[in-house]
Amino acid sequence: MTVLPRTAARTARERNVRAAWLIGLGIVLLILPRLIYPVLALDILAWGLFAVAFDLLFGFSGLLSFGHAAFWGTSAYVTAFLLGHGQSVPVAMLGGTGAALLIAVPVAFLSVRSVGIYFSMITLAFAQMLSFLALQWTDVTGGENGLQGFARPGFLGLDFSDSVTRYYFALAVFAVGFYIAYRTIRSPFGQALQAVRDNEQRAQSIGYNPNRFKFTAFLISATLAGLAGSLYTFGHGVVSLEVVNWRTSGEVVMMTLLGGTTTLFGPVIGAGLVLLLRDVLTTANLPVGIVTGLVFVLVVLFFRRGVVGTVQGWLRRR
Amino acid sequence: MNTQLLLIQVFNGLVNGAFYALLSLGLAVIFGMLRIVNFMHGALYMLGAFTAFALGQAFGLGFWPSLILAPLIVGLIGVVLERSLLSRLYGLEPSYNLLLTFGLTLLTQDLVKQVMLSQYAVSSAPYTPPAALSGVVNLGFVVFPKYRLFVIGLALVVCLITWLVIEKTRVGAIIRASTENPNVTRAFGIDVGKWVTGVFGVGVGLAGLAGVLAAPIYSVEPYMGAELIITTFAVVVIGGMGSILGSVVTGFAVGVLAAVGAALYPPIANTLVFILMAIVLLVRPSGLFGLPEGAR
What we know:
The complex is a heterodimer of chains A (about 325) and B (about 300). By secondary structure, chain A is mainly α. Chain A has helices at about 10-35, 40-60, 70-85, 90-110, 115-135, 140, 165-185, 190-200, 200-205, 210-235, 245-260, 265-285, 290-300, 305-315; strands spanning about 145-150, 240.
């Protein structure tokens, strides 16, 4: 990473660019359910937050988790289970998110000691164990059938049987999650995290404990992924084994890369693009895997900075 | 549980272990030499099986010619992939290789599915073993299908040959030198790039071979490599990434352990390997046969 002197003008311009992204994204998200089906729009929020959570770890800490479905899936199941047992929507969501955090503590403890590809593999292994648990523990998870037909009782006068109401409630939750991620990155903790990512030895020599930073980042990331998973359950009203499958872990990587890592807005845009693309392909009855696989390959080969990264680079050069 | 049943499980475990060993051997060769985490290995295994099936459909080729031809074709596909795509990512973090090959996996699986559906109107096809290998053998203490014994035997021979070539021959010395110190090796007049491509081709050729061998047991379908590759990754990590010996020994051992575990408590079969992996990584982060990252 090249470090340029930070002039006041440059900082001000960066702030303007950020504000422009924020306003743009905000407007799009506010009118989204008027443009596409509200359920698909809510999917974009849930996956978008999931991708932001993933990027907190991948982009800002340099750790490629290939098992983030574990946290998304755990929360999705727990949320559905609590809703099925008569809990209100906020309680179910908090329960799901809390469960993701709880699971993340031992996983983070064991995995942040590994580096590079070993980290990817051990996170994958834990996700596979959870996927096995979801398949076997049929009393709680419904096994192959998954969970469905649970109620979504109204809250503060909101009627959640209406998909547009559901969307705007989800947008509020999404905003909270996004703000937490944003604050984390902009905080001294976030700066130190990036220092650890860029040069672990140097960060250590100035007194940081790299593993402690990675551990905390992992927990925040997993918790936000859990919040996203509970949104997904809330939006769909169905949970299947797919939420803990390794393809889900791969998909969130793809969304993040496509949108642009370390850009924060990028993952949301990436999630939107992938879901819209898939929607178009399924409606047109085209082979989804061939096209998404091709997009993935092209992004990794020629477009590693993603949509937002490329646009930002282009703006900066002007 | 009676001894008879246990022995049958051990043999079935060895068959699964043969596939784990062949696949993780290829992965280990590729990772050890090229530092590529080839997520596509499972899809290439599937391509091996599919190629054998397609050769049979198109040219009436039987099992034996396919056993030679299909791995060659898959190896050639590997060479093309390495030259055209993977080589563009050298020098970047290994994560990008993982991600690229993940994308290629999605692409290949659905491509083969489309071809199977449009050309043969099936999405899954049985593949028959050759007549010479059908039927069973009485080993005295257990009766076992001939074909499965053949798979175990062939996998052992191939693993042994690969190990001998890499550890004991001049070719192996050149390969090891090319990867450990490409610049010095180049100075000796050796074309490192060609060797790297060759190693990748042989590695994925091994996956193709495993695919042909698997076709008569599991039948041919586009997603046959999808779950297998995840287990194989676990095997590679347990054995120590890049360790040839580790991948072979662990491959067979995991196969047997999972099969015996499954006989005692059926639901655990698919997860035992991941539990094992978590334990091994806790005790020895670089795997059973692996050297610590810094020691390479």
